[in-house]
Amino acid sequence: MAKKQFKTESKKLLDMMINSIYTHKEIFLRELISNASDAIDKLYFRSLTDPSVTLSKGDYEIRIIVDEAARTLEIRDNGCGMTKEELESNLGTIARSGSFDFKNEGGPKENADKIDIIGQFGVGFYSAFMVSDRIAVTSRAYGSDEAYRWQSEGVDGYSVEKAEKDGFGTSVVLKLRPDTDDERYSEFLDEYRIKGLVKKYSDYIRYPIRMEVTKSRRREGSPDDKPEYEEYKEDETLNRMIPIWKREKSEVTDEEYNNFYKEKFRDYDDPVRVIRQKTEGVSDYIALLFIPARAPYGYYGRDFEKGLQLYSSGVLIMDKCKELLPDYFSFVKGLVDSSDLSLNISREMLQHDRQLKMIAKALEKKISDELIKMQENDRDKYKEFFREFGTQIKYGVYSDFGAHKDVLKDLMIFRTSMGNEMTTLKEYVSRMKDGQTKIYFAVGDSREQAELLPQVEAVTAKGFEVLYLTEEVDEFALMMLNNYEGKEFLNVSSDELDIASDEEKESLKAENEAAKEMLDFMKEAIGDDISGVRFTNSLKDHPACLSSEGALSSTMERTLGKMPGQENAGIRAEKVLEINSAHPIAGKIRELYDSDKEKLKKYAKILYANARLISGLTITNPSEIGELVTSLMVGD
Ligand code: ADP
Q: Which of 78, 171, 240, 415 is at a distance of 20 to 30 A from 544, taking alpha carbons?
């Protein structure tokens, strides 16, 4: 029979998988057991709502069968099984539902190279190739008389053929690889090893995981003084079957939580935080939530689906209940088990379910409390968390017209001119100087760029702290907040920056009035791009800078200009070109105004282009500026 090829992505992945020096080969067992348990869950759930399925909970089991002579390990379940088509589509490709995206579009770029590809998504079934060189999956869908066998020896492809199988469900038979000098695959035929693995990873599985184990007993009739022993086989249930979330928190080790998380939510990293909430009274529920260490592939992309698993008294009724999580906490993984929910609740009903809304509200509060705790007690961990999910939090502040800002404002951390540590707004305010009324911020693509802004120099020279906003969403988030504890935010590049003393202001005013004619002449030369030219005395070393008038800052201009369809919409911040009155350039332009007005025009244009570049804006007339600079270089 002709072999079918895996889809290309699957092939690549499979190759990586098989050849990976992944140290935890043992996880294949938890993956297969988990698939078996999911398959039983599906059938069990159907039995609760569909009278034609006449099975009760006690009928289900997952069975592990070892055949040392044949060197095979079998995992068998009596769950929903798969049809021929399902075998092909479920096991023939990994790239189902587009979850597998090598290009990582829309993901956080800076981390792209750090992400361990294998670790980023559920490889589930395929992990079995780490320990076996041939896999046969025989399956019969519940309600069908036909069984099929899917077989594969790895990357070259797979085949599907008709097969015989008693009863419904699925059997996965692994032919273990031969032992090598470095790897002993036969360990997975060892009873104790298997028992240990089930305890470690699959103890909470709700259905019995059974295996025939070897026991020893005294041979009947053997003499007391010379007892003889014989071996016999007996079925043993290897798991305790209590869902981990139903066990007392103090009883469960961190490792157990971590293993559960990794298995259930397909992550290879431990979560940075485990949150458990149990309430009784108005609504009865237990929530077990995890904050992942890394944003999953495609997290910031459009196809990402948020949600928590929803259980009703231990039975899974929905895999991704999105009503339980607000968008800004969409990175949270986990589950909610409530005894108050009806089993056949539909999606539409869920949206309006009061119970669910109350749970969602309580979870939101719990998650933000836990994040604050982490921020206060373990800043390094929090920084890691924020690097992964901070953007989402900031979008949360900005979204829905600021409806969630009170929950989120203390979760944001920013870079600052005060040392290398990131700071919360609360910390900033607690450090504010006497008489400081504003929270200053500067915007740039990076900390370094923001730091170099002429106005930052001016503000920090007065002893004020400046927040560096390096992400596009930052400024929007602060604008939405408007103030923190009554202190307004102020962009240091804004014309409202007012850090000069009364005396300084007076003298500047006089200076600007005296030079009015010249400054207007320069504005004329530059054109309508700016609303004026004036002297400033707040710059230290820089010759000139741009400041914005009105609400729209230069960065926002940049951001809005980058939005699709807006490139040429001509959204412009009102800008003023400010010239450092203490810089030699001030003397130079005065001199030119008297001696060579044509040359002053060139100077004005170049100063403006310079100031734009420092602010991170592009210039619209690069060739003109290029020519002007050269003409001055050659002395025209
Ligand atoms: P995942 O479990 O993450 O979806 P897997 O590669 O482990 O990925 O499995 C792919 C699919 O194959 C599953 O989603 C399920 O539909 C199907 N499947 C795997 N194992 C079984 C099984 N024992 N019984 C029924 N279906 C199964």
A: 415
